[in-house]
Amino acid sequence: MENTSVEILLIEDNMNDAELAIRAFRKGNINNNLIHLKDGAQALEFLFGTGKFEGRDIKNKPKVILLDLKMPKMDGLEVLTRIKANELTKAIPVVVLTSSKEHPDIDRAYSLGANSYIVKPVELDEFTKVVTDLGFYWLLKNHPPV
Amino acid sequence: MENKVDRDSISYNRVKTMTALELSEEALEAKDEEKNEMAVKLAKAVKELSFQIEEKGKRADELIIANKELAFQSEQKDKRAAELAFQNEQKDKRAAELIIANKELAFQNEEKEKRAAELVIANKELTFQKGEKKKRAVELIDSNKEVDELEKRVKERTEDLESFSYSVSHDLRTPLRAINGYAQMLGEDYDTVLDAEGKRWLGEVRNNARKMGVLIDDLLTFSRLGRKGITKSNVDMNKLVETVLAEINQGNTHSAEIKCSNLFPAIADYNLLQQVITNLLSNAIKYSSKKEKPLIEIKSERKNKALIYSVSDNGAGFDMEYVNKLFGVFQRLHSNEEFSGTGVGLAIVQRIIHKHDGKVWAQGKEGQGATFFFSLPEIVKTEY
Prior knowledge:
The complex is a heterodimer. Chain A has helices spanning 15-27, 40-48, 76-85, 106-111, 124-141, and strands at 8-11, 34-37, 64-68, 94-98, 116-119.
């Protein structure tokens, strides 16, 4: 798997949310390669080919990163900062996912360079729609940086 | 007196002349001896006479001088007397002035004493006020400390509330999303395995998850209001009602006839007022939905420097006995089976109107509709 092309990187600590999102992509017929990582540290290791992902071809970049804000160890904002600070990864679109619009870090997320900000809806149909719309836009409509 | 002297001197000269003539004639006529004797006698008499006359003249001259002296002296006396009289007059005047001045001084002394007495009183007053000021300063310092303490506590509470509402929205919604999501996935992906009752139960799970989601959203809206400041602007209430109705009609179907008279414009926070109208109109539609001909009226009036807006319906109404429960959080006068709801809508309305320094109240009768009022202070535009 290490050298196959990855299109969607989902960084989400909640297994239920991840499962719902993965199912939603499947339901929306977005069967692109998706990798799910459970925390920020793992995500950075993946992106920069270190630790567990030592030797991964880091030029194989995801077309979009879905990033949950509230995570243990390293939270979403820190992951976002690291991604946007590195020449290799700063052009990858990052969609911030969170449970509510009450999050105090919305403004910070945008100022750190988040490309989009999505509140995960409680309703499964809505959630499915949001996720498939996201995939459709970032994978099919958006022209990623070369 | 001078005239007399003149006359005397004339008569004296004449006597002298006559005597000389007579002597010479007699001398001619008399015998030598006799004649000589007589002549000597005569001469003596003449000499005596002329001496006497001369003396008289001298005396007269002296008298004249003395007279003149006397006249001069009396003149001087008169002058002095006049001077004295003048001086006396001046003295009298001065004396009178002195009396007045004395009186004035006495009066001034009295005044000074009075003032001194007043100053003593004023000093006492000042000392007292100084004492009071000190007391007040101490009190102010104390109350400032209290205010600081309170502000600190309010800040802490607000921070608590903020983190609470965040964790409510995040931590409660996450499991709710899972419950709802998995229930739906079960229904969709295991459709063939579940019988009708199983599917109904799954439906109930999802219904309740959805309700809880709405409740969390309402609660968050309510708690957000506490922190959010208001931005006032001129609000065209007619347009606002139009916007709200368009939104409501998009969301659900209803058969209510909605009458809206020409409403007074308000000065308020547009978004918050929109929330108020949305809640009141949604309620009116909801609680009149079971009537054959639901009717909703929106009105406004000016009264006692306030603008009063009302939304009335001919719906389920309420018992006035429970009127004070209407605006409480989570307080409901109807069961969920009758009319669904979370019991937060009117609490939000009240909170928004209170933030605008207005009031909310309601009138109703069970089964005969309800009217909800809110007032906004009429802000007079400052002249410039």
